[in-house]
Design brief:
Layout (H helix, E strand, L loop, with lengths): L2 H12 L6 E9 L2 E11 L7 E4 L6 H14 L4 E5 L15 H10 L10 E5 L6 E2 L4 H13 L3 H16 L7 H12 L3 H8 L4 H22 L21 E5 L7 H18 L11 E5 L3 H4 L4 H14 L4 E7 L7 H4 L4 E4 L7 H11 L10 H7 L4 E5 L11 E5 L11 H9 L4 H4 L8 H26 L16 H36 L1
Parallel strand pairs: 3-9, 3-10, 4-7, 4-8, 5-6, 5-7, 8-9
Antiparallel strand pairs: 1-2, 1-12, 10-11, 11-12
Helix pairs in contact: 4-5, 4-9, 6-8, 6-17, 8-9, 9-11, 13-14, 17-18
Length: 519
């Protein structure tokens, strides 16, 4: 048996699965596609996460498109992070041309154009269904990690959440959080310290600056109501296809902290709300994060640890997470080690550092008798990739250089008019795009401060009027007071008056505080 025949047999055995799978292309041997040697990805293992990597212009975006289409065809909802703005074409059918026909003839599969059900979502000013979450939904631990707070500062955030819970102060947006910080540092400092212990104003000032930094990246648009419900990511359309939700992120490429904040919140929320599922025959949801290096670019160790933990655990909820980036080294090793599927497009070796990186990347793939992995990674053409997946037993499949299928949807973006039409047909626009700013911590604390200030102005005048010290009565048989005695008595009377005023005011404010807590 020839080497080519052995290779074909290895591919046939390595990529043969009992359950349903996605066919994404055909194997390449000695730089030539082998028709019908199809490379498949078993649906059952797609909750084990994956990586789509490669240099600019090698076809990563089209692979993401192809991957999303295959999942949607099998009733699996998909969530795509569209950083570059070039995935909207999934909503429109593709067009057959001679190059696509030639490619699919080599692969041995027909090409049929198709459009898919798409929901456009937005974190910012981009048109689409607005994604929001409240500060309370983040919780003190996650919020502290996002703000990169010290242990002492994190404890202050925990106190703020506890105080707001105890006093029915909803924390919905960043202005609620900032107002509460200002309140516990000034007007409410004595009340807070009496109930929860001393708080450093230096620490609260540091926290406030970090919140403002996050706010300047556009987080004020993300925090608030109405919170997006995870169930709206799990929809199936009337034809039985999984809904493809695309989050338009073209205007936050230079705001990595906002992007990582959103992603961590989304993953944490999905993990907390979805039930345990174990290993399903196919995932409930697949998330593809384009330009994934933005998540890790400025992330602290605490934030990376949190992401790694969620990636490890979220697969039990039936959710797969796939990172799309230029270099595999953009993803931390601790996260990379959790990934089951690897689709590696061509890498470019222009410098010694590039060659070293390619050598390191090649060591992450199974050994092959038919490829020199480091050479394959630099010789792949556009629309070709080196692939290894997990089979149904969890073992890596043989490494295969692959000629990938062309996406069935449009390989270009939608026009502005097409985007507007798509958004106008959305069933979620009316649900999430209304501005809601109900009474929360900001408004309640402002009222409390105003009421306290009003009492602080009025009380001294009232108490002076009600507690005037009466003039001493003349007593028969007693000699008149000397000038010195009159002065001493006058000073004593004033001191008593001031003491009474201070004690009465303290008593009134104490009652006011208790009344506020009861409400």
């Amino acid at each position: 048996m020839s080497s080519k025949d052995n290779f074909i047999q290895q591919i046939a055995e390595g990529y043969s699965f009992k359950g349903d799978s996605l066919t994404i292309g055909t194997a390449i041997f000695d730089n030539n596609p082998i028709t019908y040697s199809h490379i498949k990805i078993p649906l059952k293992t797609l909750n084990r996460h994956g990586l789509i990597a490669g240099a600019t212009g090698t076809g990563k975006t089209k692979t993401v498109q192809l991957f999303a289409e295959g999942l949607s065809d099998r009733s699996v909802p998909v969530l795509l992070m569209d950083i570059k703005g070039d995935l909207s074409g999934i909503a429109s059918a593709g067009v057959i041309n001679p190059k696509i026909e030639e490619r699919h003839t080599k692969i041995g599969l027909p090409y049929t154009p198709k459009n898919y059900s798409v929901e456009l979502l937005s974190l910012s000013d981009e048109n689409g269904v607005r994604l929001r979450a409240t500060v309370s939904e983040f919780g003190p631990v996650l919020l502290s990690k996002i703000l990169e707070l010290s242990e002492v500062q994190s404890s202050i955030i925990s106190i703020i959440f506890k105080y707001c819970d105890d006093h029915q102060l909803p924390l919905l947006d960043l202005k609620d959080l900032k107002k509460t910080l200002q309140f516990i540092s000034n007007e409410g400092k004595s009340e807070i310290e009496k109930e929860y212990g001393k708080i450093s104003t230096t620490s609260t000032g540091t926290i406030l600056r970090k919140i403002i930094e996050l706010e300047q990246q556009g987080a004020d648009k993300f925090f608030g109501e109405r919170s997006f419900e995870d169930e709206d990511l799990l929809r199936i359309d009337e034809n039985g296809n999984g809904m493809i939700s695309i989050i338009r992120l073209t205007d936050i490429q230079d705001k990595p902290k906002l992007f990582s904040t959103f992603m961590l919140c989304l993953l944490a929320e999905i993990y907390q709300t979805l039930p345990e599922e174990g290993d399903l025959e196919q995932p409930k949801l697949v998330i593809v994060i384009d330009e994934a290096h933005l998540i890790f670019k400025e992330a602290s160790k605490a934030l990376l640890d949190q992401i790694e933990t969620i990636i490890k655990l979220i697969r039990s909820k039936g959710v797969g997470v796939f990172f799309c980036t230029q270099n595999p080294t953009d993803v931390p090793a601790s996260v990379l080690s959790q990934l089951g599927l690897k689709i590696q497009h061509a890498l470019r070796a222009f410098t010694a550092a590039d060659r070293k990186m390619i050598k390191l990347t090649s060591e992450n793939y199974p050994l092959s008798d038919y490829y020199k992995t480091d050479e394959i990674l630099t010789s792949l053409g556009i629309g070709e990739a080196a692939i290894t997946a997990l089979n149904e037993k969890g073992n890596p499949t043989p490494l295969a250089a692959t000629l990938l299928c062309a996406p069935r949807s449009r390989m270009d973006i939608l026009s502005t008019q097409e985007i507007d039409n798509l958004i106008n047909r959305s069933k979620l626009i009316n649900k999430y795009n209304q501005e809601i700013d109900r009474e929360s911590a900001y408004e309640i604390l402002n009222k409390k401060i105003a009421a306290s200030s009003e009492l602080d102005i009025k009380m001294p005048e009232q108490t002076r009027y009600e507690y005037k010290v009466p003039a001493p009565r003349k007593q028969r048989g007693r000699p008149p007071k000397s000038t010195t005695e009159k002065i001493l008595n006058s000073q004593l009377s004033k001191q008593v008056g001031r003491t009474l005023i201070r004690e009465i005011a303290r008593g009134i404010f104490g009652v006011l505080g208790m009344g506020g807590r009861r409400r």
